[in-house]
Write a structure and sequence with these properties.
CATH topology: Jelly Rolls
Largest sheet: 6 strands, antiparallel
Strand content: 35-45%
CATH superfamily: Galactose-binding lectin
Shape: elongated
Distance between the termini: 37 Å
Order of helices and strands: HEEEEEEEEEEE
Bound molecules: calcium ion
Number of helices: 1
Helix content: 10-25%
Structural class: mainly beta
CATH class: Mainly Beta
Radius of gyration: 20 Å
């Protein structure tokens, strides 16, 4: 009888602990505040407003820009990062078959090196594309600081010339 009671209390405790973890997980979606590179008007990807950063490419000329200065309101230096996702609000236009696509990678050492390249085959009308970069490294709060974290987006095509359009490039981070 006593053991049964203990079992019930332990179950309650475990359920409560799991609930607490779920409740205290925080998700923040933040916009970049600076950028550089060969896209036209890269700053237009700071806001979800229908004004687009643009890259005109051919099969011999790619365009690459970096977006950075993402700041996290509630993250502390002991936060446990459980998910990092780059979100693209983008489309392409092109002449003829094929068309431009995007390569996305992130840096956590201020652009010295970048993680794995993620291919994003955007369509010809604006949509949101999630690029989960959680597995690219073992994330720590320091790696996500403005001094270290950058998102690199390349527009390229192997066929006909075309344009990539990027309305907004937020990053969503979940941490406990
Ligand atoms: Ca915009």
């Amino acid at each position: 009888m006593k053991n049964k009671k203990l079992e019930i209390w332990l179950t309650v405790l475990v359920v409560f602990a799991l609930f607490a973890v779920l409740v205290y997980a925080t998700t923040e979606t933040k916009s970049p505040k600076s950028c550089s590179g060969t896209w036209s008007s890269c700053n237009l990807a700071y806001y979800n407003d229908g004004a687009y950063a643009q890259a005109n490419v051919t099969n011999v000329t790619n365009k690459t820009s970096m977006w950075m200065n993402y700041t996290w309101s509630n993250m502390t230096n002991t936060s446990n990062i459980t998910n990092v996702t780059v979100i693209l609000d983008a489309y392409h236009s092109h002449v003829g078959p094929g068309g431009p696509f995007l390569e996305v990678s992130v840096s956590w050492n201020n652009g010295l090196t970048y993680g794995p390249v993620h291919l994003v085959g955007v369509g010809d009308s604006a949509s949101f594309y999630d690029v989960d970069v959680t597995g690219d490294t073992t994330w720590t709060p320091v790696k996500l600081l403005p001094a270290n974290f950058k998102v690199k987006v390349t527009c390229l095509t192997t066929t006909s010339p075309g344009n990539c359009y990027l309305d907004w490039l937020p990053v969503e981070v979940t941490f406990t």
